[in-house]
Design brief:
Blueprint: H1 13-36, H2 47-52, H3 54-66, E1 72-76, E2 81-85, H4 88-91, E3 96-102, E4 111-114, E5 122-126, E6 133-143, E7 146-156
Antiparallel strand pairs: 1-2, 2-5, 3-4, 3-6, 6-7
């Protein structure tokens, strides 16, 4: 038997399967190229050294929790300011330390400021220069020979006038 031209129909399946596989391979290769070009920021440039000293950080946190009074770190949308309030017992001892502002999505925006609380243990920071979004605020201080730390995640946003 011989095939007649009337019985041979066009079959799209081999072409469709080849196109699908080719598109799949192109997508995997494209995703791989995109993934390799992404910028990966660690929390800090000395991230691995910080991990080695992590036990010191755990001790600071334990001392902070043992104080009984929480450290207040808050952002006010109305005034566009970050307020930090240390427990009153530490305000009297004139604590020294620093405030670190971390931007999880972009390490180039991170800032370190000196801790300069007033007599009541409060300090206010102007947040108008900070980009909108998530920020981690970490306060490290030394008071009466002991080290303490507190951390809070804040969402900085501009107030929209109606």
């Amino acid at each position: 038997m011989s095939r007649s031209p009337a019985n041979s129909e066009f079959n799209p399946w081999p072409y469709a399967l080849s196109a699908f596989l080719g598109l799949f391979v192109a997508c995997v290769v494209g995703f791989g190229i995109w993934a390799v070009r992404q910028k990966m920021d660690l929390v800090g440039p000395d991230y691995y050294e910080q991990e080695v000293r992590f036990q010191t950080q755990i001790d600071r946190q334990a001392r902070t929790l043992a104080m009984g009074q929480p450290v207040e770190i808050a952002y006010s949308h109305d005034s566009n300011r970050i307020s930090i309030a240390l427990p009153s017992t530490h305000a009297q001892a004139t604590p020294t330390g620093q405030i670190r502002l971390y931007r999880p999505s972009d390490a180039s925006l991170d800032r370190t400021l000196p801790l300069a609380v007033d007599a009541t243990g409060r300090q206010e920071l102007d947040a108008s220069a900070l980009l909108q979004g998530r920020w981690k605020v970490r306060v490290d201080w030394t008071s009466a020979g002991s080290e303490y730390t507190a951390e809070e995640t804040l969402d900085v946003a501009r107030r929209v006038a109606l």
